[in-house]
User: Fold this.
Amino acid sequence: MRGKRLHRVLSGMLGALALALLVWAPPAQAISGPEVKIGVILPMRGPLSFYGTQLVIALEMVKDRIAKEGGIGGVPAKFIMYDSESKPNEAINAVKRLIERDKVQIILGPFASGECEVAFPVANRAQVPIVSPASAKPGISAANRPWTFRNSLTTDKLYTRLLKKWVEDKKIKTVVILYDQKEALMKIDGTQVLPALLAKHGVKVLDSLAYLSQDVDFSAQVTRVKEIKPDGVVLSSLPEAGGLIMRELGKQNVKLPMLGSIGVTQRSIEIAGSAADGLMTTQTMWVQSPDPIMRDWVQEFLKRQGKDINPTFEAGSMYDTVMITKMIMETSKISNKPEDLQADRAKLRDGWQNLKGYKGISSPSISINADGDGEKATILLEAQGGKFRSLE
Assistant:
């Protein structure tokens, strides 16, 4: 009897101990130090400064959110930002400073593909994770594995559904392409990506008309379009130039179906006015979406901006890029100790590479593919009455 009672007591104690072990777990490793340093490179001057201004507003929004949430793992976030001036060489210099002098955990940026082409190799050789919130030229991340990432959809994938619908709905057989020969992504889209996709649909490019980012007079290009008489016009442009080209098309009474590249945004149709009506384009983020999360985010953005210029999808992507980085820092349990800096950077690299299905502002589902590029759903849009409407 005594043995049985002892057995029951011991069994009970072991059971209680087992239960306690299930309930209790060692506390998660806390992030240490006075601050978590994150590098940021944005184009605050030069032809891409419009985007830089938008991304800074998004960055301020997310910084305030992080501060209200108690920092990153309980430690304040310090964002060290440099201006690339829209120049590839300045982007290289900024990457070097952030790595060698500032000792950041991760670099967010640069913005443009031309900057990323030269800055990504520097970060990759130094084994520092770097994430562009916007670069979309195909192949840049793939050429600089495994430390480089882009929270954006490359344009060869972005335009696939758009081209099919535009060509079929508008019965397009011939086009003229107007493209910015100075900005790297606009040039590659206008001379390679879009022509290749158009060719798959049997569309002939009758002419390609180049211009420079800073141009404001497009009367000669539009006069040439009138002479050629294509079925449609393709714009591979930054926002301002895209808007001015459409305005000139309207001025010269050229009424043709228009397709806009990734750079033709809400800002473009605000510049063009009614001349933009009918333009078709595609994005991963629709600022006029009735979704309450998007509506509230846009309202907060406009309030901070102080003027009625809607945020671009790149601003949403910047916001998401910071929030994803915060999530990875906390879930991967970086220590933030100086002696663990390289180990922490490796954790951030792995976290970005394994990202799947993050619900963000710039897309309801964000993942990273094997090449280090973003995978996001696209939304087909048409300009009408000064804003975009969904074609879905």
